[in-house]
């Protein structure tokens, strides 16, 4: 019995888990960057899930009609920017509650993509076509002789590899540029930023547009990265996982990336334990349980930190 369990664990936690976990984490990374950028401007963008869905559908449709994955990714990015522009107008110009706007986007994305799938492609539930071009893969042929190195460093889609410089660039923009300094000041204290001459609404709109572009690319990656099909609800909660990772990292791109990797690994582990007799319900639940645990731990740590700061402040006053 022990030998069987050892064999099972060896197959689940093999070196290929790193590749599969990273691949599973990529859409969460894009959603997380969406949440991180908007959060730095003091906007909680819960529409990442809906933008992923829009990006997935329009990216798929653009690739179908043009035969180009590049057009598909660009279409996903453009639709993400347009949705975020709509959200910005509603929130900043007409003072609509951002949570209501975000929830509306998520609901429209779920039903709207279903309607468009039926209207444009005459399909229900899912659609597959040979006309759709998948995102190009980066294969390093000289590593094929070593299966470990080939698994770790080869066979990734272009949009997989794009996430690494994206996270670094976002971090650099936040903490090493004047634009990032002003954006963070808007997020920390809008009134003080306004007094300093910063256009708060302009900065928040810029953050929303950039966040929408990130989520839109992530959506296109969902439908074009490793498959050439669209399925209703294919975002599968990844937008909310990205928000959880953002909260875990306190809106720091690098720290939030750790949360994304954890969620990706949990999804990969869940898919690997399915063939070993584990009920499907528990397998499907595993990534969301991991998300809930991370959020709970993050809230506890933040509360403890806040209490220590309050205690230190009271001690100074005394």
From TrEMBL:
Sorted alphabetically, which InterPro entries does this protein's record hold? Answer: ABC_transp_permease
Q: Which residues cross the membrane?
A: 12-36, 43-61, 67-86, 98-117, 153-175, 282-301
What is the annotated localization of this protein?
A: Cell membrane
Q: Does the keyword Transmembrane apply?
A: yes
Specify whether Membrane is a keyword of the entry. Answer: yes
Q: What's the protein's topology in the membrane?
A: Multi-pass membrane protein
Coarsely, its chief localization is membrane
Keywords assigned by UniProt? Cell membrane, Membrane, Transmembrane, Transmembrane helix
* PANTHER family, alphabetized: GUANOSINE ABC TRANSPORTER PERMEASE PROTEIN NUPQ (PTHR43370:SF1), SUGAR ABC TRANSPORTER INTEGRAL MEMBRANE PROTEIN-RELATED (PTHR43370)
Identification of the protein by name:
ABC transporter permease
Record organism:
Diplocloster modestus
Taxonomic path: Bacteria, Bacillati, Bacillota, Clostridia, Lachnospirales
